[in-house]
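Example record used in the benchmark description.
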Amino acid sequence: MSAHYYLACDVGVDQSRVVLGALSKGQLSLEEIYSFKTPIRADAEGGPACWDLNGLEKELFIGIAKAAQRNLPISGISANSNGIDYVLLDRHDRPLDSPPVGRRGVLGTETARLLQKVPPAQIYAETGIPLLPLHTLFRLQAEHETNPGVFQKAQRFLPIADYLNTRFSGIAACEESLASTTQLYNPRTHAWSPKLVAALDLPGTILPRLVPGGTVFGPVVEDLRRLAPLVNARVVATCSHDTAAAIAAVPARAEQRWAYLHSENWSQFGVELPAPILSSQAREDDFTNEVGLGGSIRFLRNSVGLWLLEECRRSWGSVGQTYTDRELIDMAGNHGPTDIHIVPSDPRFLEAGDMPEKIAAYCRETDQAVPSSPAEIVRIVLESLALAHAQTLARLESLTGQEIEVLHIIGRGSRNDLLNQLVADTTGLPVVTGPADAAAIGNVLVQALALWHLKSPDHLRGIVASSFPAQVLKPGPGFDKKVRDHFAQLSMAGALA
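Model output (structure tokens):
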């Protein structure tokens, strides 16, 4: 088989990059061609930070041009991003305004009015998504009421990755994995929800055409065709939601009952299902139903993850104590087990700020010893995350009726060997770690599948397994019953991490 080459534009709120993927003889390799700080405009008067779309496109085109300098025939190009932010477009598919960065949700009278029209239980029954003010549903409602002039001009909205794929191809559409995170999409019908669109009083034309992941849009626009290696490239709507792309890259075996933990600043713990679970218990447990590869349902729970360590490191760095990821892991490993734990889902831990002091305050309030060193704090965080993941697994198995045989940990956290071993110990499952760069891998390989360079999703996952070495961690003695009971008491209100 001759080599095939693809470009993945992996867009994040903080950092973005252009990655070159090469598929040859059943092996995939990745190379980061260009990385840059995502252009975000801060509001000097205290308003929300906004995406600098012109700056973002300029940087991505620089990266694409750098990749073209390799003079390799590019088969496909696609973008992935988060599922929160969106762009409002005019009839020429030009942005009407600079879209705000959705780091925080919207809570106010607009949200209350929407919930009066459609109660939370009905929203979950319609979308399979728990209430979260970050979602597009609430942000569109707030913007519609506070900035009606823009909506009079708006012809459609598009999530960020879909907007970029429109810029690459000239074709405007919304890929289903991103659509499913908006809380405007029905995972049973695989269509926009008429009930929620009506509740928003939005013009029907604002909803873009939906396409499944792996849809080939066509050739790149003229500006990109001028780069000779892209003259035959096709724009593909991959799994455009970054988590969907990452889960597509789980190197799982079809015959096993497996779950995944996408371990980044946020953790997504779940399974792939053929149909959504929309029960009241699933809603109460905050499980979400999002679309994945091949129209599958990503039944998962979002929870805080490595964000806790990142915020601790930021606080320590502000006073001259700087640590690498490896140093933090080694410090916690050398410290050994602790009987101090936090419930990561406590609302105080979801906001930026002095995280070490927040952890200390939590310990004082729950009559625990106050940690006295960075090493102890890191150990507390890692053990608490592992215990919380074990609780999520128990809820997941109860809701699905499945007994999980193996857990795949992907994303940046797959490199945290101490956390991964603690997860194996607390869940009692063998843990397979990697790949770390799962979103870019999934982006590239879904392109390959769409362009008929791969045969099936199972073939795709086999390529991942053969291309990226994985480590298997077997469960050890784990935490003793005293520690488990202690954590259960801390989370007796029913909160999961």
